[in-house]
Every structure is written in C-alpha cells, then in structure tokens.
Amino acid sequence: MYTTKGIRYLSSMLYETFRIPVGYRNSTATESMFLPSSFQLHPRFRDISAVFDYFIHDTDPGSKPVLCSTNFLEYYVVMQVQDPGKNPGMIVLGPTIPSLLSEETMQNLFHDFQVPRREQEQWAAYYRQVPQMSNKQFIHAALLLHFLVYGKTLEFHDVIIAAHPKDSTIQSGDDLRKTIAERRELRHFHQDPTHEAMLFQLIKQGKKEELLRLFPLLSDEKMGTLSKRSHLRSYKNLAITAITLATRAAIEGGLFWEAAYSLSDLHIQQIEELKEKNDVEKALVLALVDFTERVHARQLPNVSAAISRCQNYIFNHLYEEISLTTLAEITNLHANYLSQRFKKEVGISVSEYIQRQRIEEAKELLTLSDFPLSEICSRLTFHDQSYFTKVFKKYTGMTPKQYRKQRQLIP
C-alpha cells in the first residue's frame, strides 16, 4: 500500500512525464498538494480544495480512475486512494482540454456563464495555460496511475465504464412502462424504423426527389418527445438527432467527413436560433436536402477504403504540403503501389488530383474572401504566383483575376 511520501513522489513523476497538473489530498483533508504550484486554477475554483470538493460531491470514484468533465469544457481524472481503516484519499489529474478553444467557443462560454467583461481576459488566460491532451491519451495516463498505485492492470473501457456508473442513470423502469402504456392506449406509436432507414438510405444515395416524397410521410406524433417542458425544444432535439444521422449517412455516401461534420454544425447552429416549430421543420428539410445534394454532387466511381482515406486526407490538408510518402503511411501501402492504384481507381494521378483540389479551393477563396492573389497562392502552397496562375488557367480557362472579376459580377 502507499505512503504519503510515495504518493508525493508518484505525483511528481506523473507531472514530469505527462506535463499535466496533478493533485493529491489525504483522507482527513489535512494534507494536500498540487503540481505545478504556478498553475492558475479555473476562476470559478477559489483554491485546490474546491477542486477536490467538486468531485467528491459529484462522483463516487471507488478505486477505479474516473474520467470527469466539467461544465467549463475541462477534463479531469479522479481516483480514490484506499487507505485501510481510513477514508480514502484522492488523486486528481488535470485539468486538460482536447484542443485549444476557439474564439467562438470562448464567447459562448462567456455568454453561458454570464462572465463580466472585466473577467473575460482572466478566463481566456486560464484556458491558454491548460495543457492539451486527447481523451485517449488522458485515459492511458489514468490506467498507468491505477497500475502504479494498486499494481493491477485495467482495460481501456474500464475507465469509461467507471466514468458512467449505472447508478447515475435515470430511474427509467417505471417511466418506461408508463410511457408504453400511454402510447398503446392513445395508439401513438413511434415511427416504423424501416421508414427512417429508407430516409437515410436516400441521403446516402444522393436521391433528393425520393427524399422529398418520403419526408411528409414521417408524422410528428410518431417522433417521440425529447423534452417534457417545451414542444419547440423537443422538436429541435429531434431535428438535431436527424441531422446527426444524416451526417453519418452522407459520409457513408461519399461526402468528406470534415465537410459533413462542418455542415452538420452549421445546420444545428441555425436550428438553435429559431423560435418557431414550423421554422425548425423547414430548416430540417433544407438540411436533409443539403446533405443529399452534396452527396449527389460528390458521387464518384466506387473507390477502395485506402483511396477514400487518401481523398479525405487531401481534403483536410489542402493548406499543407502533401506528399505521396505521407499518403502511403496513412494507408499502410507502398508508395509506388498506392500511386498506381490511385490512378487506376480515380482516373488521374495523385499529384494531379491534389492540384485540382487546390484549384477548387482557390476558386472558393477568390469568391468568398478579399485575400490578395499572393496570399491565396501562398496559403495553398503554390510557391510561385506565375505557376499558380498557369495551373489555375489550365483547369478553369481563365486567370485568377479574371475569375474573381467574373464572380463579382454574378448577383
């Protein structure tokens, strides 16, 4: 079993290894530590004791590590340290965030928590210092912590299960039986799942007309209730669920996953701003049609999983140098074999495909931004503006300046 001195040493080693904050408090709360001492806690936590208290009241960790998230978008790992004959002490790893918060996310936090303007820079400074770590890496750190303390191995899913204990779920037994009885009596049954499957299959296939014919057949009454307090909120929740499923169907239909998820975000943001149920319904139809049309426009001859992965990578990294070596690494294929296979399946070489995609992106920038030609050229890794102009004209039949001027004349 551990000693306080041993826990202090362990905490120090964990911090030096992962460069994430580590805290410990003993069973009587008479002794605590937090590394690094220079780390500034979240403005809503007055001191380290408040952090420990937050997790004591909100979780029941037991001896397994628990991955916890806060309302402030942080993640912590919490683990009780059993001391025979005494109440358990606690080790806390974190906070961490998966990635640096965008300006938009920061503004949303300020809005949600009504942060006064005078305190906003303090919040922003806090998030700039929080270490970035994926949840996968964080859970591996938790598994190592548990092994070092208890000498026992856990599986990756053990942390996840511990983070979502069964006793924290809603008491749904009686509620479920009551809801089913009421629906039987009123003959208000949920939608036949085959209808929903048909809807999302049409999105996957890019069939807009069939989608529009099917959608009116999906009755509101058969959709279920996702909010007991607000019909508008319930319908928004249903719409968001539908968009989430449509996103997956669109990806399966060939839409690049980054484009699909970004499109999903935009449609959900729009729906959240609406105030009328009918407006939400119209927005949902437009969203489903949007996914379907984009899948239809994107549809290409069937390509293998390896080539699809290359295309997705290229789509996401147009502003970076892309080499055949990198594509070979992400597909686990030999570069020469990948090059031949790509040309056979897509019809053009890897380099020409990348070039075409960059020109398509250049067309978007010329239309939607005021960036000078030199900046667009640089952003898309064309190191010679005259070469960029030559390539652009090869695929569009006009120079970048002519293209921008033409697009500006279109109302």
UniProtKB/TrEMBL annotation:
It comes from Paenibacillus selenitireducens. GO terms for molecular function: DNA-binding transcription factor activity; sequence-specific DNA binding. Residues 308-406 form the HTH araC/xylS-type domain. Keywords: DNA-binding, Transcription, Transcription regulation. SUPFAM superfamilies: Homeodomain-like (SSF46689). Transmembrane segments: none annotated. The keyword Metal-binding does not apply. InterPro entries: Homeodomain-like_sf (IPR009057), HTH_AraC (IPR018060), Tscrpt_reg_AraC-type_HTH (IPR020449). This is HTH araC/xylS-type domain-containing protein. Gene3D superfamilies: Homeodomain-like. The keyword DNA-binding applies.
